[in-house]
Amino acid sequence: MADIEAPLNYVREHRDDHQNELIEVLSIPSVSTLAEHKPDIEKCANWIADQLRRLNLDTVEIKPTGGHPIVYGEWLQAGADKPTVLVYGHYDVQPADPFDEWDSPPFAPEIRDDYIYARGASDMKGQIFAQIKAAEAMANHGGLPFNIKYLIEGEEEIGSENLEAFIDNNIDLLKCDFVLNTDAGIYSKEQPGITYSLRGLAYFEVEVRGPSKDLHSGRFGGTVRNPIHVLSDLINGMHDDNGKVTLPGFYDKVREVPAEERASIAALPYNDDEWKQMSASKALHGEDRFSTLEQIGIRPCLDVNGIWGGFQGEGAKTVLPAVATCKLSTRLVAHQVHTDIPAMLNAYMEANVPEGIDWEVRDLGGGPAASMDINSKWMKAAEDALRESYDKDTLFSPEGGSIPVVGMMQEKLGVDSIMLGFSLPDDGIHGPNERQYMPNFFIGIETYIRYMDKVGNTN
Amino acid sequence: MADIEAPLNYVREHRDDHQNELIEVLSIPSVSTLAEHKPDIEKCANWIADQLRRLNLDTVEIKPTGGHPIVYGEWLQAGADKPTVLVYGHYDVQPADPFDEWDSPPFAPEIRDDYIYARGASDMKGQIFAQIKAAEAMANHGGLPFNIKYLIEGEEEIGSENLEAFIDNNIDLLKCDFVLNTDAGIYSKEQPGITYSLRGLAYFEVEVRGPSKDLHSGRFGGTVRNPIHVLSDLINGMHDDNGKVTLPGFYDKVREVPAEERASIAALPYNDDEWKQMSASKALHGEDRFSTLEQIGIRPCLDVNGIWGGFQGEGAKTVLPAVATCKLSTRLVAHQVHTDIPAMLNAYMEANVPEGIDWEVRDLGGGPAASMDINSKWMKAAEDALRESYDKDTLFSPEGGSIPVVGMMQEKLGVDSIMLGFSLPDDGIHGPNERQYMPNFFIGIETYIRYMDKVGNTN
Fold this sequence. Notes:
- Two copies of one chain form a homodimer.
- By secondary structure, chain A is α+β, with helices and mostly antiparallel strands.
- The first copy, chain A, folds into two domains: 5-198 and 369-456, Aminopeptidase, CATH 3.40.630.10; 200-254 and 300-367, Alpha-Beta Plaits, CATH 3.30.70.360.
- Helices cover 34% and strands 21% of the residues of chain A.
- Chain A has helices at 5-13, 15-26, 38-53, 121-140, 163-169, 217-220, 227-237, 259-266, 272-278, 292-297, 341-352, 377-390, 404-413, 438-456; strands spanning 59-63, 70-75, 84-90, 110-112, 115-117, 147-153, 178-181, 193-198, 200-209, 215-216, 301-310, 319-320, 323-332, 358-367, 370-371, 395-399, 417-419, 435-437.
- In chain A, the strands form five sheets. In chain A, strands 1-2-6-3-7-17 form a six-stranded mixed β-sheet. A four-stranded antiparallel β-sheet of chain A has the order 11-13-9-14.
- In chain A, helix 1 (5-13) packs across helix 4, helix 1 (5-13) runs antiparallel to helix 14 (438-456) and helix 5 (163-169) runs parallel beside helix 13 (404-413).
- The longest helix of chain A is centred in the N-terminal third of the chain and has 20 residues, at 121-140.
- Chain A starts with a helix and ends with a helix.
- Chains A and B meet through strand 10, helix 6, helix 7, helix 10 and strand 11 of A and strand 10, helix 6, helix 7, helix 10 and strand 11 of B.
């Protein structure tokens, strides 16, 4: 095993510098969804590229896409016997509004009680920057231990719109043994954890139309179907009394989870009260016979994400509306195919929409579920690195959300993603007062050094 | 019977003048709900008062209210043996937007194919103005045949907000034998009709709250209740499989309609295809065992008028929303009490909202149902006047809509309203291209003369 004392010492000695640089990048409002921040997106891409240049890579480029650019870098001098690792991250952030709910301005980072508060602190400038600092320390103190490629995109928060085409056009360029996806977190401040599976997504807009124009609810009420009632009936019917989704065939490909995996999920630290607190909910609810962690980890689900129709203003308007619409999405687990879901939803509508009502299902896309081998050597290396940093065994947990890029990498490059990052569940990502726990940021840099070292020495 | 040839001849000779005056009043955009039209409201009230002054009444006044003024006039010189009739109307109109759906500007009246097109033509400047022209002709050619009072309000289209207080404060002033409510129509161009009952209304906003903040639908989907699902379940449960409303006690006070009345409803001209066309619907639907006309006439109903919650923008946002809300109203029939309904809705919510979900029912008001005696002498006089004008028997029909002032007059003054007006079902009130059929406008003036004469000669 190579000597990693040099890079570790280097990063320990430069914590203040790293913190100052983190403040610098968090001050750039690289909000990908707002056109007025286009210059900030470019500024941030350049800032990241400049950071990568300190690693003395073979090449660092800002590659244009149909939308925001991708920062790409590579160094392939480690030799053919060393693995090639593709580091993934994104430099764009969510919008920060509502601004008045922030205790300090979202793009003027402020440190309070060991946390740095800023949009993007946790999701995910704090993560990708920690990885870059680790790689910089190694590159300049002993050398990088494997062949490395960086793909840092600027559109993750708007659905990675141009990433798929970029991968398709650059399959050879991106060839690697696995992806180190730094858009990730650990279990709690002192408990290391790795997400080993992510749910897929299929998202729709469903519209039902009754009368071809809004009617007076007095003159016609009680004589024709109200599309809001029809939509409510349809939504009501999408779950049975046991909380199972009723779309025909929905569970056909859902795998029977081995008893061993269910046992490992049952062993994860969990309690209802904490989940209620995190979900800001007074009661929990889900599919019968599955625990909360199973429900998000190994079971698919369906949620209506939004609904609208008829009169929504102040006061009373006696309208019997022509149209009712909802946004609806399913979360999918391993083996379910996200492109199968539109046909299931259409079959459900076909069978349940009453006579005289028109309907349309609009497919708004989605992405595959992903499940990683927790026994791979790349995963074991991550487990070992985390144990050295935290002096605790790592918890492997399934995650309810979707990171489409993980499924995409599996599908297109044929490789797993190791989800190694240091955000915390209560960092408030996407909301006001997003933050990153600074001790974890510094431990994170060290852990990335240990991880890179172990991967470089894996046989 | 007095000689009515003189007033009839007078109005026949002055049709052009009356049409020009109608154009004048329809040119005033007296939109009650829009603050910028406050001067137009005042202009219109003055215009109406000037018209009333031509009747040589004892008094004509513009009476202030908490909102838009009421035009009041009275003439009590007919003698104690003559009835006192309170003529009701309103001079305000609905907003005209969307303007681009009008074929001619809504406040620049245009005559095409025997119709006059303008906002308020049918609802209801065309009606109250016809009555005033009839009374003017009689006042100046033989004298008014009974004691008359006018109450013409400026807030009907915004729920007659200040009318109830005005009536409460002026019970003696408004004392009468019955109300002649001119905010009414006939069955079809050549078929006279009178509405003898109106449904009541109780209107609500219902909010259900799950998580105290919006959640990520991946991270939490499948583990907590989604308030849109809960609201859909609640709406779904508000009707049973037979189309009956399930609010507890909802039908307790609904009267058993006598076979005779059901037979008279069955005899009204009706066919499904026409109803589908009028309601712009491909299929009809309602409570089992009742016909369409019974459903709007003698059966109550419940409709959701609007719904909203969660993400309603373009594209896909994976939110599990905190709140879902709907507007909901019930239409009530005679003997149901609109102020009973809030307790029923609350009881339904109490029984059906699942654990952990907060809810609130906001009462947005309503009004009583009204049912008039079709055998009263005032009603018979209207039937006779219509027969003389149209040479056809009058159809008495129940109406699905609500005119709160009718129930209010019954409740506070203890009198029936005779609904005598000449609008047509396809006049497009409240919508673009509102119109009034001019031949009916002129026949209407004559019919009001005949009706006033008959009422004055009733024993």
